[in-house]
Amino acid sequence: MSESTVPSRQQRPEGVLGHRRYIRPIAQRPKSATRESVLLWLRGAAHAVGSPIKLIDGLCWRLVAAGVPVDRTTVSVSLLHPQFSGYGIRWWRDSGEAEESLIEHQVRDSDAYRNSPLRATGERGETVRLNIGPLQNSDPYPVIAELRQQGFTGYLAQPLFLYGFLPAVPTRPFQSVAWATKTAGGFGDADVSYLAHVLAELAAPLTLVTERRIARDLLSIYLGRSTGPRVLAGEIRRGSGEGLRAAILATDMRGFTVLSDRLPSERVVEILNAWFERQVAAVHAHGGEVLKFVGDGMLAIFPIADIEFARMAARDALGAARDALAAARAMDADPAFADARPLRAVAALHAGAIFHGNIGARDRLDFTAIGPSVNVVSRLEGLAKTLGRELVVSAAFRDIAPETLTSLGEHALKGVADPLEAFTCATMART
After folding, report:
1. pTM for the structure as a whole
2. Is 284 within the bounds of a domain?
3. CA angle 140-144-146, nearest 5°?
4. Domain of 86: which CATH number?
């Protein structure tokens, strides 16, 4: 079985989000190994493993094959990410399952983290070694009681120092790896010493896959889901890009200037974040790509790979526009945003050719979209405000739209040579 997004049977604490799981086929699990061969693998072939979950899974099965008494492994690694403080991987020998989870920032403030031995390893670089026998007084950590109930006899948490910029995280300079065993007597001294050597060798390949992940995530967040991987794949030359046809969506908040003058800057940022969270969700739900934010506005595209699929792209763009406008109305009705009322949105849709690629100076580039079609959709957005309409679309979009649209007459648009006929949906309200 390959990596999957199927939820694991394992229970996760609040703030830890299930991401993917991996179960290596039994035929592909190492049958025999030596402790030295595991270290040699970490120094060599492990660097070619493409994902953290497969790296940890491969290591654990090699440890088992070498006779190291490991029955459960937990790895916790910091990330540079606006939503997640890091990722965690858990591996279980009995089920053969490895699960990767994303850890939200607020988990660091939870009792579960404060009462975990991983805090001592991650923040202070300490090693925590415990034999899990019958309960006599009280357990030093809640996780020990859970492990006892599951039949584990020993627990070992060790710090892991990764290279590169990862240790620069000031509150958590070390990463953490915790091992648990069901072998009678727990971990022996030789096991503890050997696992410390394992972590020293694991640092290099784990740094490699983690930094790749950070680069991929940050590029996708700042450039877009399809653009980020393209840049990471090497499309970084100035002027490189592609011409394409697309349905283009522009949305904008009405009255943002008044809002920003009236409320403190910190509150304006909170409102903008909530606003864009909903706008972007509408685009992504319909398969679109967000190109950029401009102030309180958003520009997104729905590529038309072939003229036969133009109506599908228009359907997706129109669905995203409807959802984005509905999200704005829901925000306006939400008491949490009462100080920002009235919250109104306008949207514009157009279809045409754009150039999507690298534009800028030698030492400062922007991966963006340009062309007359981008100018038209921007002007249509302004027309929507002038006409007091939630949604205005062009004749080019009307021609591929999946439904009949209502004409709003011809209008002269700034920067556009000839007047254009504008349309709207009969079901759309006035602003």
Report:
1. 0.73
2. yes
3. 135
4. 3.30.450.40
Q: What is the CA radius of gyration of the chain?
A: 27
* E-only strand ranges, 200-343: 241-254, 289-294, 297-303
Distance CA 121, CA 144 (A): 16
CB–CB of 397/349 below 8 Å? yes
Provide the token pair at 114: 């404060």
Q: What are the φ and ψ backbone dihedral angles of 133, each rounded to 5 degrees?
A: -105, -165
The length of the chain, given as a count of residues: 431
Q: How far apart are CA 93 and CA 152, in angstroms?
A: 12
Distances (CA, A) of 252 to 6, 281, 361, 370, 377: 37, 15, 28, 19, 12
Please, what is the end-to-end C-alpha distance for the chain in angstroms? 52
Q: Is the same domain home to 186 and 40?
A: yes
Q: Give pLDDT, residue 7.
A: 36
Q: Are residues 209 and 266 in the same domain?
A: no
Contact by Cβ (8 Å): 106, 15: yes
What tokens does 324 get? 């984005």
156 and 246 fall within a common domain: no
Span 288-346, pLDDT tens digits = 999 888 888 999 999 998 777 899 999 999 999 999 999 999 999 999 898 888 888 89
Count of CB atoms situated within 10 Å of the CB of 381 = 22
Is residue 196 domain-shared with residue 282, that is, in the same domain? no
Whether residue 419 is preceded by a cis peptide bond, meaning omega within 30 degrees of 0, is no
What is the count of structural domains for the chain?
Answer: 2
Q: Under a CB-based contact definition with an 8 Å cutoff, are residues 310 and 351 in contact?
A: yes
Q: Residue 369: which domain range?
A: 236-424
The secondary structure of residue 59, as a DSSP letter, is H
How is residue 149 written in tokens?
């109930």
Instruction: Let me know whether 146 and 42 are in one domain.
Output: yes
Is 1 part of a structural domain of the chain?
A: no
- Amino acid at residue number 60: C
Contacts of 1 (CB under 8 A, 6+ apart): 22, 23, 24, 25
**259 and 218, same structural domain?**
no
Q: Do residues 194 and 68 make contact, with C-beta atoms less than 8 angstroms apart?
A: yes
